[in-house]
Amino acid sequence: MLETLAEAYLNAIDEASLEVEEGRYEAQELKKVVNREEIINRTLALILPGESN
Questions:
Q1: What average pLDDT values come out for the chain (53 residues) when binned by 10 residues?
Q2: CA distance 24 to 39
Q3: Where would you tag: which of 6, 27, 43, 53 has the fewest CB atoms within 10 A of its CB?
Q4: Which of 43, 46, 47, 53 lies closest to 11 in space, CA to CA?
Q5: CB within 8 A of 34, min separation 6: which ones?
């Protein structure tokens, strides 16, 4: 499941780079301002509430 979430995260960053301020940021720039680990951990907590970190 972690691998799937990691892939979804990459896809979301790519999509966000197109959406945020009409493409103002490149995916690499967004990766610098978001916390990948925190996003994936929060997602896991929502999917598996009894197994949160």
A1: 91 89 85 92 89 54
A2: 22
A3: 53
A4: 43
A5: 13
**Three-state SS string across 1-53, please?**
CHHHHHHHHHHHHHHHHHHHHHCCCCHHHHHHHCCHHHHHHHHHHHHCHHHCC
| Residues 26, 34: Cα–Cα separation, whole Å | 13
The structure tokens listed for 38 are: 């925190």
The contacts of residue 48 (CB under 8 Å, 6+ apart) are none
